[in-house]
Design brief:
Number of strands: 24
Helix content: 25-40%
Strand content: 15-25%
CATH class of the largest domain: Alpha Beta
CATH architecture of the largest domain: 3-Layer(aba) Sandwich
CATH topology of the largest domain: UDP-N-acetylmuramoyl-L-alanine:D-glutamate ligase
Shape: globular
Distance between the termini: 60 Å
Oligomer: single chain
Number of helices: 17
Strand order of the largest sheet: 9-8-7-10-6-11-12-13-14-15-16
Length: 506
Amino acid sequence: MRLKDLLEKVEILNIAGTKDPEIEGIAINSKKVKQNYLFAAICGFKQDGHAFAAEAARMGASAVLVQKILELPEEVTQVVVKNTRSQLPLLCKNFYGSPSRNLVLCGITGTNGKTTTVFLADSIFKSAGLKTSFITTINAEIAGCRASFDRTTPESPDLNNFFRRSVSENVKVSCMEVSSHSIDLYRIDWLDFDFFVFMNLTQDHLDYHGNMENYFEVKKRLFAPQFRQLYGGRGAVINLDDMYGRELASLTDLPLLTYAIEDKAADLRAENILNSIDGIRMDVIFNPVHERKSKFASGINKTKKFSVSSSLCGFFNAYNILAAMATGIIAGVDMDRITEGISLMQGVKGRFERIKVNKNISAIVDYAHTPDGLEKVLRTAKSLLLPGARLISVFGCGGDRDTKKRKIMGNISAAIADFSIITSDNPRTEDPGLIINMIEEGFKQIDNKGYDIEEDRKKAIFKALEMAKENDIVLVAGKGHEDYQEFDGRRVHFSDQEAIRQWSNE
């Protein structure tokens, strides 16, 4: 593609150079630049891409997207824009030809439950006989084959390339997690979404957003009419039991399908929920209550009740199941295929993952790293205890992230778990001991002495398993699927699951 065609509708301040080179690829990492690529210099949180433009030129870049004129060889055309981040998605849209338009794209957003809901929705679409692809923080797949990204929230070149590959594999439906960072940092701009799913909003990422109001304002963009051209959208699925969800339902211009457990006004409701260590059984009532919602009735013209079974356990997973079911309905999948897809999804690594160990102890590994997430998994684990059994929690908090939640999470574990072991998570550039001290304040606040401190995460897990007795549950929270710990710029291999199995084998 010629550079002038690539720049269609891009807000250009200046162009240095008269050449109109053929562009054969787009990269934001100078080491991935090839001959005749365009290199986009992104101003990151730790590094400024402008510092790597010269390297990109040496690697063969024929053009660069920059925010200022740089000292580069004259044969490299420099396209100057106000904000390279905001303009990059438009270049990607032009270069890749808007591939997401050629499939049904579902964006699933919320603080907790996104990954599990993507897996559930993907299972539903597979049950309907559709070729699928998906993107989660754990992994990504295209038509059953694993795809990889450099980061958990892919940048716009990666996303557009992913959807182009999906289309080439005849994928019909794709589901992806949509984080607040991906919205605010323009990563999903100019993708053509069909449906948005809002699950919940609880305290997280306040180190980035500052407060809950700002956090919600970012999420709100997906559902607000003024952003429709930027994100697309043909319908929305919203949780009415969430206060932010109710606000979204009142402001969005999109046709709605709502779900809830408590709110009787929802189109899709769960009742008679039976939750055990073996899974969930529940009845789901489907009754599209508003005229503008009836278009998503999927051939169901009156109230109907369906029995749903899942190997997932935990009350919070009832919401994830409802969200996935509503996604299937809004996309036109038959209810029999929807319930089949739910039953076939066996679980997600690091999402309330159960591991049987010696002494008839149940160990559970979960990604819960927010106050709301930790409270939900602790309460769920507590509800699964047999009479006389105890719940022991092992958790920490990440460094260089929201410091306000540390004391809160300590308070939550102190209030729910029978015993807690405070340990290290991903301390990053912070002192692990100082993070632990901040968590400990939550225990001291309610004068709870039922805890211990062990900075070494492996030793903390071993200690919890050693003190556990028959039928006890040990919940290890915070890292879930991650197989590493981050210490001051370096990653060290570590897996909660491996540590648990090592203790059991020994």
